[in-house]
Amino acid sequence: MSSPRSLPTRALILAAGRGSRIGKDESKPLVPVLGVPLLARTLFTLEKAGITDAYVVVGYEGQRVRREIDAIRRLGLRVHWIENERWRESNGVSVLAAEAALTADAEEDESFVLTMADHVFEAGAVRRLREVAEKDRGLSLLVDRRVEEVHDLEDATKVRTRDGRIQEIGKGLESFDAVDTGLFLATPALFRVLRTLDAGESPGPSLSDGVLRLAQEGEAWVVPGGDLTWQDVDTPADVEEAERKLLGAWPKPTDGPVSRLINRPISLAISRRLAGTGITPNQISVLTLIMGLLAGLSAAVGGYAWWLASGLLFQVASILDGTDGELAILTFRTSPQGAWVDTVCDNVSYVAFLLGLLVGVHRADLPPFYLWTGLAGLGAALLSLANINLYLLREGRSGSALSVRYGFEEGEGIVQRVMRGLQYLGKRDLLSFLAFVLALLGQLPLALPLFGVGATLLLLPATVKANISLYLRNRKLDSAQAGS
User: Fold this and answer.
1) Do the Cβ atoms of 215 and 168 come closer than 8 Å?
2) Given this model, what pLDDT does residue 109 score?
3) Amino acid 423: pLDDT
4) CA angle at residue 65 from 63 to 67, to 5 degrees?
5) Exposure pattern of 466-477 as b/e (b: 16+ CB <10 Å)?
6) Is the pLDDT of residue 198 over 50?
7) Residue from 185, 156, 139, 189 nearest 12 by CA
């Protein structure tokens, strides 16, 4: 019984062409999509999907492309640069230019991911291709069968398939049932067929020519990818479409109704405009903190105008709280340190708002009911935030409060089902919007008893249960390791 093949960890990226249709003077691999150059975005995505070595074939302005990509220090995978002197010819020539480098250290028939620098795709697409590496195939192509939804279908490379295999491929096909996404899992068999097609004269063979030859040998397969995000970028309109698709990853399943309907559309519009400015997610987190502190100060002053300003500032902070995470993901700046900055800034701004409102209620000489419920809510909130941070420290994998696994998320008991139904009542987006509406109505002090009840009855028990569950899971894991 043969041992299973390991998943491929190498990728070949074609980045040699000029890309004159993009309408910019700079090299096409450096054209930004949401502030990240196309080639850098490809490299970041491959790294996220588990690729450790990227072989990049450059040609037009190759030295400039290499210099600017090498300057991106946060790239974690190894980049191997390959010069293609015949870069003006078809892209199959670029594939052949990488043959020596890819086969030098490889085991026989070792597969590799193949893509172009001008294709935007999600990491899940690469993972899906890597999963078919154990199958004995010359080449696999990720295809999209939603042909009616493909942007600029006329320019897309069409594919006709039968029984999971490629029958025909080309831009001029009249009869087709799928579209080429530009993402392949290839083997040295691709080099072999391209060599037979290359006479050393312009324009040389295209990648599609090589795929078609393998298809004729019965060695070109398709992998369904219609549920995944991808976009070929050749024109300014394609850039817009790629950005639209990347932003379409939101709202997230964890978003509450207020975030989904109000906050997220605004925060995404802000993120799209900030992506290319150099502003970092941590700077947005600090701005969120400042907004929260100003909301607390305004609440402490008291009176309708100041309380209205407080509610508005707290709502703006809630919107910006989505922007820092979006910007981190869209520009590949996520990190445990950044997650902790976000969490700490959120915690401090939340507490500052409650403290400020308590001071404002005290100064307004309102009935003691407001003050005592507010104090109870502040105490429950502080204990809940302490529980969340303790959980994150003990887990040690992320500083994001979104990684906390609450006890009610699993199980079908009555308590778990009720808590799952009420979970959105404890989310910041709803609390911030509720504070804004109350401020608008001149009733901001009512936020204290509402927050107090919510924190005491929902947030505190949930965070305590999360820590208990984590403790029990760790005990079980330790026991299993000790017994092995």
Assistant:
1) yes
2) 57
3) 60
4) 65
5) bbebbeeeeeee
6) yes
7) 185
Angle formed by the axes of helices 428-440 and 304-330, nearest 10°:
150
* DSSP 8-state assignment for residue 4: P
The residue ranges of DSSP E strands in 122-163, in sequence order, are 139-144, 158-162
Angle, alpha carbons 462-467-468 (nearest 5°)? 95
49 three-state secondary structure: coil
Beta bridge partners of 169: 159
pLDDT tens digits for range 437-457: 999 999 999 999 888 887 777
The SS3 of residue 201 is coil
Residue 142 CA to residue 220 CA, distance in Å, equals 11
Buried-state track 301-311, b at ≥16 Cβ within 10 A, e below 16: ebeeebbbbbb
Would the CA dihedral through 180, 181, 187, 192 be positive or negative? positive
Say what the alpha-carbon torsion angle 262, 264, 269, 271 is, to the nearest 10 degrees: 150
As given in the structure block, the two tokens for residue 373 are 């419920």
Classified as helix, coil or strand, 16 is coil
The tokens of 49 are what? 């999907």
Q: Over pLDDT 90: what percentage of the chain?
A: 69
* Domains of the chain, residue spans: 10-244, 250-483
Of 467, 294, 301, nearest in space to 390 by CA: 467
C-alpha 258: how far from chain center: 21
Q: What is the CATH number of domain 10-244?
A: 3.90.550.10
**Residue 106: which of 9, 195, 184 has the closest Cα?**
9
pLDDT at 256: 79
Looking at residue 421, what is its pLDDT?
57
Single-letter residue type at 234: D
Q: Is residue 321 pLDDT above 50, yes or no? A: yes
Within 10 angstroms of residue 159's Cβ, the number of other Cβ atoms is 27
Contact 276, 35 (CB under 8 A): yes
Q: How confident is the model at residue 477 (pLDDT cuts 50, 70, 90)?
A: confident
Cα–Cα distance, 289 to 308 (Å, whole number): 18
Q: Is the pLDDT of residue 3 over 50?
A: no
What element of type H or E holds 12?
Answer: strand 10-15
* Helical axes 428-440 vs 447-454, angle rounded to 10°: 160
What φ, ψ does residue 262 adopt, rounded to 5°? -120, -60
Q: Which residue has the tokens 């109505």?
A: 441
Does an H or E element contain 382, and which? Answer: helix 368-395
CATH of domain 250-483: 1.20.120.1760
What's the mean per-residue pLDDT of the chain?
Answer: 90
